[in-house]
Design brief:
The chain is an alpha+beta fold and about 325 residues long. It has twelve helices and twelve strands. The chain has a five-stranded antiparallel sheet. Strands 9-10-11-12 form a four-stranded antiparallel sheet, with helices on both faces.
Length: about 325
């Protein structure tokens, strides 16, 4: 591993200034992704700026009736928080479905959102990869891609975003707050991750050197009736091969409000806007759920070895929405 400097930041402005002072510096959250990538030679920072002691470790109610989650709240703390469990159960379920207890104790909200793809070519520095070395090619298109994207990908990169948490946050219209050299800003989570296009190495719309300071969940009555379901190749300690975060408000047998996001299908958490349109105002029946899934997946462009994801996600959407309605009417 390349030698690197380490500094612990004690306030937000100081953290941003420390990072700005060294072009090759990186923020360090729990280190559960960054340090692995450093060991693999994918990341070679000159300095780490540790953000874990910043005063960003709280989950707090907002005046509007939502919740604000600080960037250094650990995954374990977030999943265990009573208000998260009560008001946004899909978020707690998503976080609990990720990694292991030990990792969740270390991993932070900011780090989870900005973790890098698990594409095997990306993490193997002996291989070409457009995301790691722009212009070097994407061997996954012709090679190993059974867990790669079916939506929104291009020939330049077909990797998926690995975060479970981000899928639930996307369904709930979360807003990401950041601090950059020229001041504070915010981005809807739906705009945080850039489309792949021909620049897969550009992953987020954050300004260079921006520190994520937290995430706000707006009030969403439908979110209390929500669920996250993840399919993976083994029962625990594995990334998703497909996932769904869904919230439904059904009254008199009609869907009044629907929130749906898909995971492990694209370079970013995939807000299922077309499906939500089909659901809203329609009878809450399995036929509607299937039509909604089909509408979303109409633009799917699977690769030869990941076409199974289309059926998998369709079945997941129908199953999760059916369960949500059954539970709400029990
Ligand atoms: C074996 C294993 C299994 C896993 N399984 C899953 C899974 O199933 N689902 C899932 O979602 N995740 C999974 N993970 C990923 C894990 O959740 C992430 O590694 C973790 O969330 C990253 O958080 P961190 O705080 O450790 O980030 P770090 O590793 O510290 O940082 C990750 C990136 O974020 C940047 N960063 C960190 N904090 C900030 C900030 N506040 N502002 C700006 N940039 C910042 C860092 O510079 C770095 O680029 C797994 C990890 C491992 C090792
Ligand atoms: S899918 Fe993306 S991350 Fe994987 S090899 Fe291709 S360019 Fe690299």
């Amino acid at each position: 591993m390349k030698e690197f400097g380490y500094q612990r930041a004690s306030d937000v402005a100081g953290a941003v200034a420390l990072l700005g002072a060294e072009p090759d510096a990186r923020f360090l959250g729990g280190g559960t992704n960054l340090v692995d990538l450093m060991k693999a030679g994918v990341e070679r920072p000159a300095r780490l700026v540790d953000v874990r002691e910043l005063p960003l470790g709280q989950v707090e109610p907002t005046p509007e009736g939502g919740l604000h989650v600080g960037a250094t709240v650990t995954n374990a703390e977030l999943a265990a928080h009573p208000e998260v469990r009560r008001r946004y159960p899909a978020l707690a379920q998503a976080v609990l479905s990720g990694a292991s207890g030990q990792l969740r104790n270390m991993a932070t909200v900011g780090g989870n959102l900005l973790q890098r793809t698990r594409c095997g070519y990306f993490t193997d520095v002996t291989q070409p990869c457009n995301k790691r070395v722009p212009g070097s090619g994407c061997p996954a298109v012709e090679g190993e891609h059974h867990n790669h994207a079916i939506l929104g990908a291009t020939d330049h990169c077909v990797a998926v975003h690995p975060s479970d948490m981000a899928v639930a946050l996307t369904a709930f219209d979360a807003v990401v707050h950041f601090e950059a050299a020229d001041g504070a800003g915010e981005l809807p989570l739906g705009d945080l991750y850039l489309p792949v296009g021909d620049t897969p190495h550009r992953e987020t719309a954050l300004p260079p050197g921006a520190l994520v300071t937290g995430v706000t969940l707006p009030p969403a009555p439908a979110a209390a009736n929500s669920r996250y379901r993840k399919v993976r190749e083994r029962a625990s300690y594995a990334f998703a091969i497909g996932s769904v975060a869904a919230a439904l408000d059904v009254r008199d047998g009609v869907v009044r409000d629907a929130r749906l996001a898909l995971g492990a299908v694209a370079s970013r958490p995939w807000r299922a806007v077309a499906a939500e349109r089909v659901l809203t105002g329609a009878p809450a029946t399995p036929q509607t759920y299937a039509a909604a899934a089909d509408a979303e997946l109409a633009t799917a462009r699977p690769l030869p070895r990941n076409a199974y994801k289309v059926d998998l996600v369709r079945n997941l959407v129908v199953a999760v929405l059916t369960e949500l309605v059954e539970e709400a009417t029990r």
